[in-house]
Write a structure and sequence with these properties.
mainly alpha, 4 helices, rod-shaped
């Protein structure tokens, strides 16, 4: 089985522009060498979120990227807090 083909944002938008311009999705799919269901999937992605559709491989929409960054930062702060708690517990013990 071959590797999965990837299509950039411009390719997808151009395909959808052709469909919106009056060509049938099946024609566009055949001309571009993709499955017609892929055209329909791209239409759904664009209609669901026109501003952030097709962010690219390994990239997130800016709101999702910010959320990921904040979650990572929170995890780091919690880890630092836990280390400080343990250090305080060790140093607050009375020597015998």
């Amino acid at each position: 089985m071959g590797a999965r083909r990837r299509y950039d944002r411009e390719f997808k938008l151009e395909a959808l522009r052709l469909v919106k311009g009056g060509k049938r999705a099946t024609e566009v799919a055949r001309d571009l060498g993709v499955h017609v269901n892929l055209i329909y999937y791209w239409q759904k992605q664009l209609s669901d979120d026109p501003e952030y559709a097709f962010p690219g491989h390994g990239k997130l929409r800016p709101p999702d990227e910010q959320l990921r960054h904040l979650q990572r930062e929170l995890a780091d702060v919690k880890e630092e807090r836990d280390i400080l708690k343990k250090a305080l517990a060790i140093f607050s013990k009375r020597p015998r």
